[in-house]
Write a structure and sequence with these properties.
8% helix; 2 domains; 4-stranded antiparallel β-sheet
Length: 418
């Protein structure tokens, strides 16, 4: 069992830049969608994915790919095409991540040859992204992209583990753990669809400084840090849509206690743009682009909501698992319910929540280890001080993610709501 998070560190540089400005797999299969209306209440996720509206796409939580037994991995299918052509590939098992930004594809799962991108000096543009568990490295490409019924022409994507660029420079490798996670086997998916709260994956910080070690120009076998204008950075895919482009709703059904083999929900584009994405009575929590305030066990704790984390992670005295491979996770003798209070970064609104902590080893081994949707998966990665409300928090809820600077019926983003 593996601690799995694609969030906090992937957005560190972008969040820093935002705060500064604010203060002044297997490869491709094919998929199809049915037309119809996906109506929902703001705080409950009861909609069947059988009828999918034009601003929505089905999300599946099932077996991870690449031979790793990851749990709680929400995925969608994405079609990429060589720009302006009908040379296309539909890539299944793309992780849906509300905590990062941009479409990133694993090269071994991508069979179409997408054109590279050059810097102003003519070097090949590459990117380094840091996740909680390691780094991803590869070239920037352009593609025509289709997600459900939504399409974008000539969008920049990140092709990770890309052999067309030299190996990652030391400033990327040493940025976090030094462990490369950008293969299908290590990622458990064929890529990631980052639908977080920022319009680009870095922003003004990477436009004016190379200290974030995110963008590189590669020439003559060497890659060096470069600045990159905001308009040329990896974009939030939803901001590129012509409509339903102010945020997303990830809507997942409730999952039976102890887990079940799979679950199917919806990723809905837009907030307040149709009958299926109205905020209704959802509580809106303003954020700084990722985090907001919280309280757990009587103490303040920085909090964030992240579908790219497979569990709920937080520091606690709950008994951790002693079995090999499970030490990051909690193993109480019986299922426990924990509570916390979440408050917006402006402290204008708050919400009391509760979540379940199950014995990870027991639930992992249940049903002959066939359960892939686990509502009580929780743990404590070494050194973590925040409350990371990962995928179990999404079960039985509609979770809204509003993009920074964009207007919605709940106010201007960034915010989360549920």
């Amino acid at each position: 069992m593996t601690f799995y998070s694609r969030t906090r560190w992937a957005l560190a540089a972008a969040l820093s830049a935002f705060i500064l400005t604010a203060c002044g797999g297997g490869g491709g299969g094919s998929s199809s969608t049915a037309s119809g209306n996906a109506n929902s209440n703001a705080n409950t996720a009861t909609t069947s994915a059988a009828a999918i509206a034009t601003n929505a796409v089905a999300v599946t939580i099932g077996s991870s790919v690449g031979g790793n037994a990851f749990r709680n991995i929400p995925t969608v299918s994405v079609t990429v095409c060589v720009p302006g052509t009908s040379t296309c590939q539909t890539i299944d098992n793309i992780l849906v991540d509300t905590g990062s930004v941009g479409l990133r594809l694993i090269s071994s799962a991508t069979t179409v040859t997408l054109p590279t991108v050059s810097t102003s000096s003519g070097a090949t543009l590459a990117e380094c992204v840091n996740f909680a568990s390691g780094y991803g490295w590869g070239g920037m490409r352009t593609a025509d992209v289709k997600i459900g019924s939504k399409s974008v022409s000539g969008m920049r994507v990140h092709l990770m583990h890309d052999s067309s660029v030299p190996s990652a420079p030391s400033s990327c490798v040493n940025a976090l753990t030094g462990y490369e996670v950008d293969t299908v086997a290590r990622f458990g998916a064929n890529g990631v669809l980052g639908i977080g709260q920022l319009p680009q994956d870095c922003g003004s910080g990477c436009a004016t400084s190379t200290s974030n070690h995110i963008y590189y120009g590669c020439a003559l076998g060497t890659c060096t840090d470069v600045t990159l204008p905001v308009a040329q950075q990896l974009p939030h895919p939803v901001t590129q849509f012509t409509s339903d482009n102010n945020g997303t709703v990830l809507q997942l059904p409730s999952v039976a206690s102890g887990g079940q083999s799979s679950a199917t929900g919806l990723l809905i584009f837009g907030i307040g743009t149709g009958t299926n994405n109205a905020l209704g009575s959802a509580t809106v929590l303003k954020t700084n682009g990722l985090t907001f305030n919280g309280s757990y066990n009587g103490s303040a704790i920085t909090s964030f909501i992240d579908s790219g984390s497979n569990g709920i992670y937080f520091p606690s005295s709950i008994t951790q698992c002693s079995q090999s491979g499970f030490s990051t996770f909690y193993c109480p003798t019986a299922s426990m319910t924990q509570s916390a209070t979440l408050s917006g970064s402006d402290n204008a609104t708050s919400a009391a929540i509760s979540f379940v902590v199950d014995n990870t080893v027991t639930t992992y081994n249940a049903n002959n280890a066939g359960n892939n949707a686990l509502p009580g998966l929780a743990g404590y990665p070494s050194g973590m001080t925040d409350l990371d409300l990962g995928l179990p928090f999404f079960f039985g809820r509609s979770v809204f993610t509003a993009i920074s600077g964009v207007s919605t019926p709940g106010g201007t983003g960034p915010f989360v709501a549920f």
